[in-house]
Amino acid sequence: MRLAGHFEASHRSPTFSQGGMTAMPAVTRWFIKAGLAYLVAALLLGVALTAPSVLSVPPSIAVWAPLYFHFFMVGWVAQLIFGVVYWMFPRYTRDQPRGSETLALATFILLNAGLILRAVGEPVNSLRPGTIWGWIVALSAVLQWLAGTAFVCNTWARVKER
What are the domain boundaries of the chain? Predict the structure, then answer.
């Protein structure tokens, strides 16, 4: 296969338009920028979690460990994947090439609302179990599950050969 032929074939893919690659959708930019913010927050939490080994920081800082992991895996990794998949996966239909924009926006809002509730609720619930904070952590998990389900519903039909 000639390189020029390969370029011409790839240039006709749904991710390319007349002037080159299609513009990155706003919701994709939001997913990626939020993911980058969570990456920085997770790295900062990682530094803070190692502080007790070299500084006189109370060991209660360990209540942040689940949040550190959550910020990395859901805030950074999942969010980056969601944004790139929404942008780059094969076209759904000619009228809705990326599926439902409303569902993509709902995914973003649900995921980030869940992450914010978790960021507030998880540490407080660890220090004061049996209070309303346990329900806030549970609500955060439900919101994140709804976001994941919305993402799958919006993406499923786009997983195809062409």
Answer: 23-158
